[in-house]
Structure formats: structure tokens, C-alpha cells
Amino acid sequence: MSGLALLCAVAALLLALGRAIPPPEEAARMARFVLHNCDWGALATLSTQEGLRGRPFVNIFSLSDGPPGPFSGSGVPYLYLTDMEISVQDLEINSSASLTVSLAQTPYCKKHKYDPQNPLCAHIIFCGSIVKVNDSEADLAKKALFSRHPEMESWPKDHNWFFAKFNITNIWVLDYFGGLKIVTPEEYYSVKP
Fold it and tell me: What are the tens digits of pLDDT across the range 62-100?
């Protein structure tokens, strides 16, 4: 690999992660960093479906807290949803949910040869609820989502898509050995990724 090609590869990796990950003692910043660098997450709801009623049900959703790039994330996980989706039907009955995002979906863990379950391959667990955004927040949600997921703009209009956000009430960070770290929403929103 030529020097220029190697430099381009390193630059692409740095751009993919924005910058170096925060140190383990900065759990709130790590939570913001991981969310901002992830394009999707696993959303768990309590099922309302026949045969599964009241049991956990996990589904993958695209998300975004803002356009790509360092310091551009709001920390709010935005989603583009339709009532036709099975998990959204669960949320219409009980809006409580949990959301997990992991650096395993970025080049970081593969580069360091970290298994997704290794604590050094940081993941964040958010608990809270899903709420539709109001009109004043819809443009922000649209910009956040469509900047990372441009395909969304062409999804069928007759599916009645709407913008929603994950209203965070609890945050757990696993980014190092020794167990989960608890971060309050106030701590989370007070730092930049």
C-alpha cells in the first residue's frame, strides 16, 4: 500500500468515528459518542402481538442524533416510523422501550479485533419511551435522519411515516471492564460527543 493510500485509509477511519473515542472515565461523553457514531440500534418493546403479548420484542431501527461529523449530534435518538411496523404497534399501546447501540457497527471494534460482546467494544443501553416529535422539532429530526439515511426520503408516502424520538430516562454504559456505568440524562446532555 502506498503512503498516500495508507494516509487515505487512516483518514477514512478517523472520519468514520469522528475522532478518538472518549476514555472510560468519561461515561457520559462515551454514551454521546457511541450514539452519534451509530446509524441503527436494537429497540426493545413489550409486545402486543397475539402469542407474544407482554413479552420483550426486539427490532432493528435506523436512527440519528444529527448529521455526521464531530460535535454535530444533539444526543437525541430520532427515528422515522410508520404505524404499519409491528414494534410501532406495540409502542401505540405502551410507549416504553429500551434502545441499544454499539460500536460493533463501526470500523472501531473490527480494527481492534474486539468481539461485539467485549466491553471494550462499547455499547450503550437507553431506557425511556418513544414519542412523536412536534412540528417545531420535525425539521431537526428530518435533517438528522435524512442526512444519514437518504433512502428514507423515497420510502412510500402511503405508509404515513412520521418522525419520533427516544425520550431518554435512564442510561447504562458498558465501555470497559468492571460492569455497567450509570449516566443520568442531565449528565448525558451536558457533554458533547
Answer: 999 999 988 789 999 999 999 999 999 999 999 999 999
How much is the pTM?
0.88
Tell me what pLDDT residue 3 has: 41
Q: Report CA torsion sign: 157, 159, 165, 166.
A: negative
The cell for 178 is: 468492571
Find, among 30, 52, 1, 11, the residue nearest to 123 by Cα. 30
Q: What is the CATH number of the domain that holds 162?
A: 2.30.110.10
Among candidate residues 62, 77, 193, the one with its CA nearest the CA of residue 126: 77
Q: Which residues make Cβ contacts (< 8 Å) with residue 114, sequence separation at least 6? A: 104, 108, 120, 121
State the maximum Cα–Cα separation within the chain, in Å, rounded to a whole number.
59
Into how many domains does the chain fold? 1
Q: CA 19, 25, 29, 35: dihedral to nearest 10 degrees?
A: 80
**pLDDT for res 192:** 82
**Structural domain of 87:** 1-190
Does the pLDDT of residue 38 top 50, yes or no? yes
